[in-house]
Design goal:
Length: about 450
Amino acid sequence: MVASSTPQDPQSLSSIPGLLQALRGYAAGTLTPAAYLAACADRADRCEPWLRSFVTRVPLADMTAGSGPLGGIPVGVKDIIATADLRTTNGSAMFPDYVPMEDAAVVATIKRLGGTVFGKTVTTEFAFRHPGPTANPFNPRHTPGGSSSGSAAAVGAGIVPLALGTQTMGSVVRPAAYCGIVGFKPSFGVVPREGVHPLSASLDHVGLMARHVDDVAYALKWLGDPGFVFADGGDLAAVSFDVATGLPAPAAAPRLALVRAPYWDRVDDEQNALLDAAVRRLRDAGATIDEVVLPALGQETESVLTRIMFHEAHDIYADLVRRHPAGASEPLKGLVRDGAAVSTEDYIAARRAQRRLRVEFTDRLATYDAVLTVAATGEAPEGLDYTGDAAFCAPWTMLGFPALSVPAGKSSRGLPLAIQLVAPHGHDFPLLRIAKWAEGLLAPTR
């Protein structure tokens, strides 16, 4: 029997290369896909007894390293994303043995590009609030966040270099912040959602989790919808990306809007101090940073998001909960009840407000390259029953703006802390270039 790693072991990742590190090793002949997959499987064997990030793992003998841009890269796939011939439970007691007949579009792309599915990562039930058993890789007494719990923990523990998550409120950015990794939620619509179990069709995003900004940028180039047109009029095929060097630096130090949103009283002292330190460091490196007030951020954005999500989730889950009441959690039943209280008229009004707010926020931020704010209130909460506060991620999700967490330090208890960077819809790669610049200045030594 393989001994379990200590909770501190996942913090030392130098022995397990990240995504681009692995590809560079393959190109140089210093690493083979077979050796890399075996190392990742061994890492999982050692961590999983206490981490519990996977619902189902693919046996090492069944993992094939194909050729292509993702050749030899093992990927964790959130368990609401369909995988042909591999169990997809949706984190629900109602789907314990469900095996899809087809891959989700993003999974099919991974396989076509030479990547391999390492396993299905734990999700909260239907990507809502009822958590699974996954622990935080930095301290198993703390949550990894949710709903993309297993994906964040598996990358944070060094088991896989890339994992897929989804975000309807804060389910990629927040758990990534808690687990000390980069979590990127692209602009709404960039990564195809076909084959992803919905929570709210107007809010759901497929996101990417990896160790470094370059890794998620590379994954976005290959996993995004090739027909998506970015704000500059370009598409994914036109994005220049050198595996050896990663993303190019921004042409100049960025102009950032520092946003301390409503509900700021929820942000703890250590997270506030970390943000202040980040502002000083980025300014010292040449960034222009202005504090900006966005009056609609808070009650209005929250009201719009919840009305949309509740109404759409009710349409998806009401009949399922009615037919399987014993298999549905109380949070899911509550979601259906809340959705029943949102009239069609209120829903239509919320969708109109969503479109209006996207325009207003884009105009208000037009003189800035990105927003700088927090990804979470602080370190990951203690206990596994609560996955954390999504208040500082949800507005950007409602707007469909690209957003990501960048590791920036640790709390006094050794748990990760992060900043969040956001840009208007369609500005994904300019945002990622800024994030890479900030990562070089802020990322803690690991």
